[in-house]
């Protein structure tokens, strides 16, 4: 504690903590109002086949355009939204918006492609999630086979509960991926029984693929593991041709990262798809 570190530390810490506290209380108030103020929007990052280069999906990523502070990155507000529970209505908004968008793209005559949506821990544990997703698919007319929900390993700690939620979600005809795979604190044993479709290799393993032989071992092992379990595998955070070459040589199925494209506005997706096909 600060006290254990001596008087000077304590005196130095308190004002700073108050500032942080005040800041986060203010941000929380703003976060609660952001939905009705329509300050959220989604951007979409393309995912391509490592073999054909064609777009196979997009990941929806949340953006908050704060009235006064401007653009606030998800890393600065998702944890707070999660702590306070506001993530549930925000997460519902994300699902509804992404589903409606997918439905619209299909109506425009684009070829079918997946739209992946990130779930938070609270959202995943919320009893209303499955009925909400079911209703939203019906209301938006989205083809369930185009929807993928991303969870993280840490959300699956309650194995029985997550197993039944995942099974119910899968019964809706959607797919499930494990995001940031390899960084979570969990055993691998759940993988053999969990109804998931895809592993997303965390970008921390991809970043130094060229210089770190250990990262190359981990990445190729994850790819082999995924394939032996009949799972698809996506690499995140691919920024260079050289990283892509390694991933392709290891047999990685799909690629996502700045090398392909940054997350882009929905209106730019049709053009991106046409260019890549
Ligand atoms: P994530 O789901 O792992 O998303 C990938 C993140 O990596 C995104 O950051 C994306 O912009 C970034 N990224 C993509 N390609 C590259 C690359 O080549 N290099 C680097 N350095 N970064 C790359 P973003 O959009 O800031 O999102 C951060 C995290 O916030 C996401 O990580 C996800 O955990 C969370 N998040 C975003 N949108 C939502 C949402 O709608 N709901 C929830 N619950 N979480 C979300
Ligand atoms: Mg994700
Ligand atoms: Mg990720
Ligand atoms: Mg991440």
From TrEMBL:
MF terms in GO: cyclic-guanylate-specific phosphodiesterase activity
Keyword field contains Transmembrane helix: yes
Keywords for this protein: Membrane, Transmembrane, Transmembrane helix
Domain EAL: 24-277
Source taxon at top rank: Bacteria
Keyword Transmembrane helix recorded: yes
Protein name as it appears in the record: EAL domain-containing protein
Organism expressing this protein natively: Cohnella fermenti
Taxonomy of the source species: Bacteria, Bacillati, Bacillota, Bacilli, Bacillales
Location of this fragment in the whole protein: 254 to 530 of 530
